[in-house]
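> @MW can you paste both from yesterday?
MW: sure, first one:
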Amino acid sequence: VVNWHTLEKNSVPRVIYGMNPDQLNQTVTGSNEVIVDHIWNTVKLTGLQPDTEYFYQCISGEYKSEVSAFRTYKSGKGHKVRLILASDSQDNDAVNRFTALLKKKYGDDLHNHINIMCHMGDAVSGGGVIEQYENRYYRPFSPLTRSIPVAMVSGNHDVEHEIFYKYAKYDDFANGVDGVNQEAFYTLKVNGVQLF
């Protein structure tokens, strides 16, 4: 799933993608919704090959993002998983230092070295203030999140606010454990390793 903010409510968001940055020859359209006064676009890519590098560009009306890349997970069981754990990231300076350190260590192709970022809560200091999501989470982490998938949980500063859950849609992952409230639990497989 690819998500992004725009100002274009009346346009159909789309993602063009392919295995070569100069040949983005596949197109998928999605939907958008208003979260407070922000437009949140969602496009779901399906039928991707495992362990494959893809390049993509987001388009909404006149807006076009830069071309970014990601790598799909490996199929099968028990491959190595390299993940980033983050939490309490309301401080933009610390996030900027963190992303710069990762870029220095792994270069521009982070997606070929890191499989997923797990944010363990408190992405913002006030869960009901939408500008904090954009200014304290999405923009500062964008050098990572444009290429690395993110799993995110709500912390005490996010205050279980409805804004958090409009952004973090995990309905496709809230599955499969008997006796556990589906809305409070999700799981996903990364390179054949089950993450809870």
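MW: second:
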Amino acid sequence: LGAVFADVTLFLFGFAAYILPFVIAYSGYFFFRRRYEQEPFHWAVFFLKWSGFFVLLASGSALLGMHYHASAGLLPDAIRCSMGNAGGILGCEIAVKAHTLLGTLGASLILTTLLLGGVTFFTGISWFAVMDALGHGVLRLISWIRQSFVALSDWARSRSARRERQATLIEKTAKAAPRIAPRIARPVLKVETGEK
């Protein structure tokens, strides 16, 4: 059953079928995350999410069908398309119609917009939150690079200062006259002898 499902989805959607396991995993995560919440089930939200998924799948297949051609043996041989065959039957049909109506650039632009819209509807991702998180990460990276550079320059300065101190110490010890070590001898006691 799994092989038949994989073959049918690969035949229909091309390489876009490889997002299905991630979609199933995300749906399971979303379902189990909301399991204990007391909010009622909203059919409108359910249909909006799954319509977003189908738009994502269709536009992804069309983009793949428009721009990529799979090598022989990677996809079923029955897919014959005047454009690329990497999008499966659905991608080929949508790509041919969109290319006829809008041209390559216009179709690519519209399909990319639909793809990102489908991702937004299915996952609920806010692109402003993505941009904000990306900007925050870039600023943190710049701050870390700056701090690392300052720490590295401080380490280099302290290392050169240590080398200078060692060179100065070696020079001073070399200039100093050799000292003769003091010799400590036992004092000789003269015993006075008296007359007898």
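> thanks! The mean pLDDT is 83.
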